[in-house]
Amino acid sequence: MRNNVILAALSLLVILPLQNLSAQTLTGCTSTELADPARVVYQCPGGLVLEAEAAAALGVTATATDGRPTEIDVSSDAVLIDIAPGSGSFQIRTPQAIAAVRGTVYTVEVADGTTAVFVSEGEVTVSRSDGSDQVVLAAGFGVDVTPGEPVVVREWGAERVRNLFSRFGR
After folding, report:
1. CATH number corresponding to 2-166
2. What integer best gives the mean pLDDT of the chain?
3. What distances in angstroms separate CA 122 from CA 88, 102, 104, one per listed residue?
């Protein structure tokens, strides 16, 4: 009996962290799973649409009074963000960076100790996770935030942009 209890407890320790990192649910938003490529689209209050790679690890860390997410934590893979102008502040936090916006289309990718942010429409403010080294990205520009490396705004080449957006079926 004792072995069964220990086994059940260990099973919960394995299952619970995986559920928290799942890209399949996001508090306050409705989700739709899409294929080719596999991803999840979240329709959130206030005109916020998040499109996450199927294996992306993300979660809501702050909300407005209407239930609209105002801050999302992303710890792996990529997310495409589309937020309607005038819908209020919104930011993505990663282990390396903060990307804050007020109405635009952009992507945030977390991989191999680097956060990459690319702006398709509008402007996005990006800083290190501690708020330092803040830069503003305009449409067509991106930045890679890596600990110990300078935060440099660059115009991304067509191939890099195409490869990133193809992960969202675009």
Report:
1. 2.60.120.1440
2. 84
3. 14, 9, 5
